[in-house]
Amino acid sequence: MGLVVIGAQWGDEGKGKITDFLAEGADVVVRYQGGNNAGHTVIANEKKYKLHLIPSGILYDEKLCIIGDGVVIDPKALLDEIEYLRNEGVVVTPKKLLISDRAHVIMPYHKLIDAYSEKQRGSKDIGTTGKGIGPCYTDKHERTGIRICDLLHREIFAEKLKTNLEAKNRVIKEIYNEEELNFDEVFNSYIEYAEKIREFVTDTPYVLYEKIKENKKVLFEGAQGTLLDIDYGTYPYVTSSHPISGGVCIGAGVGPTMIDRVVGVCKAYTTRVGKGPFPTELFDEVGEFIREKGFEYGTTTGRARRCGWLDLVILKYAVRISGLTSIAVTKIDTLAGIEKIKVCTGYELDGKVIEYFPASLEDLAKCKPIYKEFDGWDDSIQHAKTFEDLPKNAKEYLKFIEDFTGVRISIVSVGPERENTIVVGKY
């Protein structure tokens, strides 16, 4: 059956580490949405790996990794990542990595339009990574996208590229006043990419179904987080896909009856990148302390993350939206050394206390967090090997999270290494 790992905040919760940890007990690891606009940092065997498209399970030799149809793929970025991993001594072959033939392809015009449209928005920009993710998903839903299966058929790809370039070049020239793309240059480079990825491409939903019928353990890995979901996030400051658990069925091609557990990953505090309201954001020395100690800078962009206290309104929202069966709390060690730690338990909006997460960003911007305060703990937390080893105050903090959300904590991370992971209960 299937175990899903999702981000329960704005992404960057440490899903890479948790997925890598859980992958040890899985047979198949599947990435089901997003693109190379997101990244996972995994530390294993005293080495740091930065992954963007390939599932974290690739670091295990005996696991099968799948990039599902819900992912949008920049073939050059994928090939660069394969080369990077091989240079780091990681085996990447079609026996370990498969790519869905239904996944959509990020084209050069997607990246250009992404960058030009952001520039044109000026102060109202969304804060995209410029990787072409949004424009690629736009074409997918407009039904003009190019899929991996198209890329592997030279004549079909040429026909679709010609049609698309005629339309995109008009946009690039007439709206953005930029230089048009050359058909031959794009075609030749992408045909070269196609030949290099061909051996990895297959009907992945079929493979997944057969593996599940064989009672293999499947781990589904998402990118970004709940509040970046296109429907349930802080729209429009969101991604263009569904990071929530519901995105698994579409993005991997499996039925809901094939999923039995959902682990939500959250930091012991809250971070986000880019614009938009952030009720618990800290603008003082505590926020700076968290940023520097937790090294809160993006894996893909290097952008500094905004930091704030743990928001349990958000976490409870993720519990409801994705049906979390357990929670993995990461970076609790980052808070060590702070004398008093706060947790948001509700918002005050227009003089009334609310416990729900507003859809309107205008309402969210007016929300004042209601806090509960806890005594802090020291750096001895990094040496904890069991839940009982944790400092008393940290255990009280975690128990409050469980009681407030109504969901048990299954994993606590006290450091970046695989061994800095405490299993509290069944996940």
UniProtKB/TrEMBL annotation:
<feature type="binding site">
    <location>
        <begin position="331"/>
        <end position="333"/>
    </location>
    <ligand>
        <name>GTP</name>
    </ligand>
</feature>
<keyword id="KW-0963">Cytoplasm</keyword>
<dbReference type="InterPro" id="IPR042109">
    <property type="entry name" value="Adenylosuccinate_synth_dom1"/>
</dbReference>
<feature type="binding site" description="in other chain">
    <location>
        <position position="129"/>
    </location>
    <ligand>
        <name>IMP</name>
    </ligand>
</feature>
<feature type="active site" description="Proton acceptor">
    <location>
        <position position="12"/>
    </location>
</feature>
<dbReference type="Pfam" id="PF00709">
    <property type="entry name" value="Adenylsucc_synt"/>
</dbReference>
<dbReference type="GO" id="GO:0005525">
    <property type="term" value="F:GTP binding"/>
</dbReference>
<feature type="binding site">
    <location>
        <begin position="299"/>
        <end position="305"/>
    </location>
    <ligand>
        <name>substrate</name>
    </ligand>
</feature>
<keyword id="KW-0436">Ligase</keyword>
<keyword id="KW-0547">Nucleotide-binding</keyword>
<feature type="binding site">
    <location>
        <position position="305"/>
    </location>
    <ligand>
        <name>GTP</name>
    </ligand>
</feature>
<dbReference type="InterPro" id="IPR042111">
    <property type="entry name" value="Adenylosuccinate_synth_dom3"/>
</dbReference>
<keyword id="KW-0342">GTP-binding</keyword>
<feature type="active site" description="Proton donor">
    <location>
        <position position="40"/>
    </location>
</feature>
<feature type="binding site" description="in other chain">
    <location>
        <begin position="12"/>
        <end position="15"/>
    </location>
    <ligand>
        <name>IMP</name>
    </ligand>
</feature>
<feature type="binding site">
    <location>
        <position position="143"/>
    </location>
    <ligand>
        <name>IMP</name>
    </ligand>
</feature>
<protein>
    <recommendedName>
        <fullName>Adenylosuccinate synthetase</fullName>
        <ecNumber>6.3.4.4</ecNumber>
    </recommendedName>
</protein>
<feature type="binding site" description="in other chain">
    <location>
        <position position="303"/>
    </location>
    <ligand>
        <name>IMP</name>
    </ligand>
</feature>
<comment type="pathway">
    <text>Purine metabolism; AMP biosynthesis via de novo pathway; AMP from IMP: step 1/2.</text>
</comment>
<comment type="function">
    <text>Plays an important role in the de novo pathway of purine nucleotide biosynthesis. Catalyzes the first committed step in the biosynthesis of AMP from IMP.</text>
</comment>
<feature type="binding site" description="in other chain">
    <location>
        <position position="224"/>
    </location>
    <ligand>
        <name>IMP</name>
    </ligand>
</feature>
<feature type="binding site">
    <location>
        <begin position="413"/>
        <end position="415"/>
    </location>
    <ligand>
        <name>GTP</name>
    </ligand>
</feature>
<dbReference type="InterPro" id="IPR042110">
    <property type="entry name" value="Adenylosuccinate_synth_dom2"/>
</dbReference>
<dbReference type="InterPro" id="IPR033128">
    <property type="entry name" value="Adenylosuccin_syn_Lys_AS"/>
</dbReference>
<feature type="binding site">
    <location>
        <begin position="11"/>
        <end position="17"/>
    </location>
    <ligand>
        <name>GTP</name>
    </ligand>
</feature>
<dbReference type="GO" id="GO:0044208">
    <property type="term" value="P:'de novo' AMP biosynthetic process"/>
</dbReference>
<dbReference type="InterPro" id="IPR018220">
    <property type="entry name" value="Adenylosuccin_syn_GTP-bd"/>
</dbReference>
<comment type="similarity">
    <text>Belongs to the adenylosuccinate synthetase family.</text>
</comment>
<feature type="binding site">
    <location>
        <begin position="39"/>
        <end position="41"/>
    </location>
    <ligand>
        <name>GTP</name>
    </ligand>
</feature>
<dbReference type="GO" id="GO:0004019">
    <property type="term" value="F:adenylosuccinate synthase activity"/>
</dbReference>
<keyword id="KW-0658">Purine biosynthesis</keyword>
<feature type="active site">
    <location>
        <position position="140"/>
    </location>
</feature>
<comment type="subunit">
    <text>Homodimer.</text>
</comment>
<dbReference type="InterPro" id="IPR001114">
    <property type="entry name" value="Adenylosuccinate_synthetase"/>
</dbReference>
<keyword id="KW-0479">Metal-binding</keyword>
<dbReference type="GO" id="GO:0000287">
    <property type="term" value="F:magnesium ion binding"/>
</dbReference>
<dbReference type="InterPro" id="IPR027417">
    <property type="entry name" value="P-loop_NTPase"/>
</dbReference>
<dbReference type="GO" id="GO:0046040">
    <property type="term" value="P:IMP metabolic process"/>
</dbReference>
<keyword id="KW-0460">Magnesium</keyword>
<feature type="binding site">
    <location>
        <position position="12"/>
    </location>
    <ligand>
        <name>Mg(2+)</name>
    </ligand>
</feature>
<feature type="binding site" description="in other chain">
    <location>
        <begin position="37"/>
        <end position="40"/>
    </location>
    <ligand>
        <name>IMP</name>
    </ligand>
</feature>
<feature type="binding site">
    <location>
        <position position="39"/>
    </location>
    <ligand>
        <name>Mg(2+)</name>
    </ligand>
</feature>
